[in-house]
Amino acid sequence: METTGEQTNIQELNERIKQESAFIDLLLMELNKSIVGQKHMMERLLLALLGNGHILLEGVPGLAKTLAITSLAKAVDADFSRVQFTPDLLPSDVVGTQIYNMAKNDFAIKKGPIFANFVLADEINRAPAKVQSALLEAMQERQVTIGDKTYPLPKPFLVLATQNPVEQEGTYPLPEAQSDRFMLKTVITYPKLEEEREIMRQNLKGGFAEIKPVVNVETILKAREQVKEVYMDEKIEKYILDIIFATRNPADYKLPNLSPLINFGASPRGSIGLANTARVYAFIKRRGYVIPEDVRAVAHDVLRHRIGITYEAEAENITSEDIINQILDKVEVP
After folding, report:
1. Which of 187, 220, 253 is the last residue of a domain?
2. Is residue 306 part of a domain?
3. b/e for 193-203, b at 16 or more Cβ within 10 A?
4. Can you give the pTM of this predicted structure?
């Protein structure tokens, strides 16, 4: 492995990453004060935070999606804002607007709630496409244009959107091009019986302990730089590309049965997202190098919203999850 022309010892890198990722345990311990179970969701939120990507959480109401996001913002001591998406919301309600100042005979800028480190877009599929696209421009460009001026967004900038998969009346599903901008889409499931008993008891007692800031924004930005040092072998790169290309041309990977089920495969954002997320996953697991299990662990979250399924697949009740499972079973592991 060559870095800046020198041979770097993977063992040294591993030790360094182990030390530098120590704050992860501290952060998870603090979050566990208010979130019972939901380990998968907490881990995915950290993947988005350290991978400089945005996350879409899908689940029925009452599964602590909003609580998890507000808890993370408190634990990281970052600016937090929440936008409740509704059908009558306007783009200016999200990004901000120009207000006429009569005394100065001039326009002043009123910044919207998008100017925060953590932006919770609650029930994103309740707002029309015009509002969704205003938010998604900010996600992609990390800046907002109000009038004739462009304003950079703060760092870190993370959009955490939630959507309810059950209630489809009066909702505007995210178009494929927009959902592709989310690095991860995580499906939240119900808690286990023991976990729900604990949730019930704590709420009857009067609620959970308050979350205190345990990590600052500088630590997160530093960790993002350290994630870039995590070593990824060429074999792992090829494995990632094989998975992505199998979503586009399944017949080339001895999966001809998938061709009539896939409308379109993952875009290059998919391969970038999978490589980036696998690196962050290795970092969270306190390792300085990526292994195939890291790629497999994050594949569903990175790809489930990037594979379009045909009417034939829908008629057979086959989801993008099933397609990903078949691809992971078939593509050769290095």
Report:
1. 220
2. yes
3. eeeeeebeeee
4. 0.86
